[in-house]
Amino acid sequence: MKSLLLIIVAVALVGGVASIGKKINKQRSKNHLGSVVEQPYPAPTSPGTQPPTTGTGDVHFAVNFAAPSAKLAENTFRTGITAYQEKSVSQVTWDKVSNEQRVGTILIDPIDQVIAPSKDFDDLKARMKILDPLVQKIVGKGGRVILVFQSVPRWLSSKPNDDTTTYSGAKMWLSVAPADYTVWQSVVKAFVNHFDNELKTNGHVLYMIGSEPENYWFGSEQDFYKYYEYGAKGALEANPNVKVGGITSVGLQASFHEPTKVATAGNKPILYNWMQYAQEHNAPIRFVTWHEYPAASPVPLGTTTWQATATKIRSWLGEFKYSNVELISTDWPDWERTQIGAFNDGAGKAAYIISGLIAAHRNNFDTTYLKLQDGSGTNANLAATNGSFGGGSGLFTKAGISKAVYNAYALISKMAGNMVDVSTNDDFIAAQGSIRGNTAYLLVSNFIPPDSVLPINTFVPGADPAAVVVEVQKKYPSKSQAEALAKGILAGTTNVDSLPFSATTKSLLKKMQEIAVTAKQRSTKTMKTVAQLNGLSAGTWNVEEYVIDATHANPYAHVADIKAKIAPFVARNDLAGAQGVIKEINDAYGIASGRLPTRQIQIDKAGFPLGFDLTPNSVHLSIFTKR
Fold this sequence. Notes:
Layout: H1 4-15, H2 18-29, E1 59-64, H3 73-76, E2 79-84, H4 91-100, E3 103-108, H5 111-115, H6 121-127, H7 132-140, E4 144-149, H8 181-198, E5 205-209, H9 213-216, H10 221-238, E6 243-249, E7 256-257, E8 262-263, H11 270-280, E9 287-290, H12 305-319, E10 326-332, H13 342-345, H14 347-362, E11 366-369, H15 380-385, H16 404-412, E12 418-421, E13 429-436, E14 439-446, H17 465-475, H18 479-491, H19 503-522, E15 527-534, E16 539-548, H20 559-571, H21 579-588, E17 599-603, E18 608-614, E19 618-626
Parallel strand pairs: 1-15, 2-3, 3-4, 4-5, 5-6, 6-9, 9-10, 10-11
Antiparallel strand pairs: 7-8, 12-13, 13-14, 14-19, 15-18, 16-17, 16-19
């Protein structure tokens, strides 16, 4: 159990405490993910069998397909991924993603193949072409590429002979200011000229300058802003319409520069100071990226940290006269430290992602999922004896076996047409519709949040998390006291009204307690759900349905079978030889394995009450086609 102090500290990443950023940054930089604990998700009370056709239910909500928005599912619901050093990902995995998913924004770092090994400027320009096949494939599928700049080549470094290894594992010469900023400007100009102009990618490549500079930049704060300024201006020289931005702070309020052990100027968030510097030096900002560490629960909708972060970033952009700026939460949702084990490998993560994508859509920002394939944060010992499942956050295990969360992205790739927002009037069930002609779609997720993420949510709009931290520190200074208090609040045994806190803090803690207690009750309950379908023309409609839950489209539910099939290859470290078997496994347990029998419904002027079961941590997609 986390101490209440640490829990509220997590909340404060949204509201603003400078010293908190220091602790979280250092933990992130050193990749202290902690031990991986096998955490099985609750078994449903009934399997996801053919749901009832009509009737009353535990949850009842309406979907008005006659009132769609202008946003298109094809643009909104795409598979965005943080890939970083893409060379570690097999071609088989890339091919599967590009062929089966509606590819979205893919983040790639050219550091390993282009920047770090380059000998001089000409060599760097030649090396850019290594990325051409992947970039062209992503763009050709309608996706976008984010190229990350968070380093300088040795030949341009202000400390070219400093081979000191930093705590991130990188060499010092990579992570300092360039010796000549005008040459750095030319470097970024060359990237943009190649990927925008020579490859004619038509705005589908974005250039992100900065990736957690408060952790990985070993120059001064002002040096980094200058690094951004010259890079952004170089991008503009190559293409006046270039999509350039940054800077991917580790949290909204991060205001401590870990490498230099110095607070940011004025103790203000590095994102804020960067925007101010960019305005003063006429540098463009066409998108803003950030990491939401630690991540919150996606439900209840409207309480996510992402929503609060996006709102604050937009207010800062307005203050500095930047408009029409896209927001992208990269490395999303950072579940590695908060919930590892069977949850990441099974249906729980799938339900989390669908609810989270609905929340992101409602707040108009894009995401890139962390990550494509299991790596850091995976229990290697467990994976070696568990069919390659080791609790990592990837869409695939390290062996290349796709997970339930991969199938969740496959589901959203099926949706099309104009988005139809839906209110379920339920804290745990999120829904989204869309419609195109005589085909309509209804996506529903029933996510049950664990205790570890609920306290991070912003349950009370306007509450100052910094003040909450101060209150807790004053009243419960020891770790043991705070842990006991947290345990009681989350279990529902502590009377929050009796605590010596302000009315605002009590309000936040009471809502947290309410959701936590209800979540425990819902963790074993199948919800009989009725969606009243309105706005569809009268007649006969086919209903094609897909389910991801503890038994459907969930490869982890078949871990014993998977383990038996790949064990011989794992024993001789022959994953290349296992590709045929892995393909069979992925085909067997893909989204098609979650398809229910097609049924027909008769819709009249009054609409139709569609009934279905939602087990805990499950996803349900219905596709309606008029006959």
